[in-house]
Amino acid sequence: MRLLAKGVAALAALALLAGCGAGVSSSAADSSGKTVVTWWTLNQSAPSADDQINKLISDFEAANPTIKIERTSRAVDAHKDALRTAIGTSAAPDIYNYWAGPGLGGELVKANASADLADYYKQYNWESRFTSAALNPVKQYGGFQGVPWKLNGEGIYYNKTLFAKAGITELPTTIDELNGAAAKLKSAGITPIEFGGTVNWHVMRLLDTFLEGYCGSAKFDQLVSNKANWGQEDCVTKSFTNLAKWSKDYLNPGFIGINNDESSALFYTGRAAMALEGDWFNKNISDQKVNMDDFGVFPLPSGTGRLYGFEEAEYIGKDSPHKDAAAKFLDYLTSTKVQQQVLGTFGTQSVNKDVTPSTTANALGKSWDGIFKDAKGLYMNNDQNLSQSATTEYWRIQNLVATGGLDPAKAGSEFQKFLDSSN
Amino acid sequence: MWKRIASGGFVAALPFLAPALAAYVVFVIGPMFSAIRLSLYKWSGFTTDQQVFVGFQNYVRLFTKDPVFWTAVQNSIVWVLLSLVIPTTLGLVMALALNRPVFGRNVFRSVFYIPGVLAPIAIANMWRWMYNPNYGVFSDISKALHIGDGSGTTFLSDPKVAIYAIFAAFVWQIAGLNMVLFLAGLQSVSKELVESARLDGANAWGVFRHVTFPALRPTVVVVLVLTIVNSIKVFDLVVGMTGGGPAQKSQVLALWSYTQSFLNHDFGLGNATATILLLITLALVVPYMIWSTKGNED
Question: Is ipTM beyond 0.90?
Answer without folding.
Answer: no
